[in-house]
Design brief:
Helices cover 17% and strands 34% of the residues. Strands 2-3-4-7-6-5 form a 6-stranded antiparallel beta barrel. β2 and β3 form a beta hairpin. It is an alpha+beta fold and 229 residues long. The longest helix has 15 residues. It is globular.
């Protein structure tokens, strides 16, 4: 039986509709996934002892689920709890996860209208610890492959001791939105004749040539996934 296709857009909620520049917001599923898949570092926000905390961390995506990596001793992992007994859900941790790409510096004639071109995703939801062994292995593979596609199959998988020391949070993509700015400056008409350079300075992400470890055996070749342009 063919599983039902996911709708093309995520649902809009009060938390996923911005109050400013609404025309830049989108709930398009393909756009959200594309922005998430282009990088591997997110910022995870939650409340600890009544105060906000934001931590940078690695993540991976499998379908409509994000997996966030952490140590079993880390505070957000402890706060998130885990799935309860007999399939009952644990308390979880209310979080806000964000990912941002800065694509260009927008230089206007006036200081007020300087900006950046960007693509961002904001996810709201309840994160919970992954306790199922198979899902945990899938999650850890996704984290490795999210950083370097193909790497999980080209490295030793975690052993029992390492799995016990590693915790993974699961955050379902439900309340999620993207926001994008493109184009040039938006100067006021009265400023157009001012003698200041204006335009966009593009920012491009790039990779350098791989540097082998000092103890790498000369017989081990560079993997194809690292040599591809």
């Amino acid at each position: 039986m063919t599983p039902p296709q996911a709708p093309p857009s995520y649902r809009a909620t009060d938390r996923t509709v911005p109050t400013r520049a609404r025309e830049r917001a989108s709930h398009d599923r393909a756009l959200v996934h594309a922005i998430l898949d282009e990088t591997s570092v997110c910022h995870l926000g939650f409340v600890r002892d009544g105060a906000p905390v934001v931590l940078p961390t690695l993540y991976g995506r499998v379908g409509d689920t994000l997996y966030v990596h952490g140590s079993t001793g880390s505070r957000p992992l402890r706060m998130a709890g885990h799935a309860g007994q007999a399939g009952q859900a644990g308390p979880g941790l209310e979080v806000c996860l964000t990912v941002t790409h800065v694509d260009g510096l927008v230089l206007a004639r006036s200081a007020f209208h300087h900006s950046v071109n960007y693509r961002s995703v904001v996810v709201h939801g309840t994160a919970r610890q992954v306790t199922d062994p198979e899902e945990k292995r899938t999650a850890l593979d996704s984290l490795v492959d999210h950083v370097v596609p193909g790497r999980s199959a080209d490295s030793r998988p975690a052993n029992a001791k390492e799995l016990a020391a590693t915790a993974v949070l699961r955050l379902d993509l439900d309340e999620v939105s993207a926001k994008v700015r493109t184009g040039g400056p938006s100067d006021d008409p009265e400023d157009l004749a001012l003698p200041y350079w204006t335009g966009v300075v593009p920012l491009v992400r790039g990779y350098g040539a791989p540097v082998p470890a000092d103890d790498l055996a000369p017989s081990v070749p560079l993997p194809a996934y690292l040599s591809a342009p």
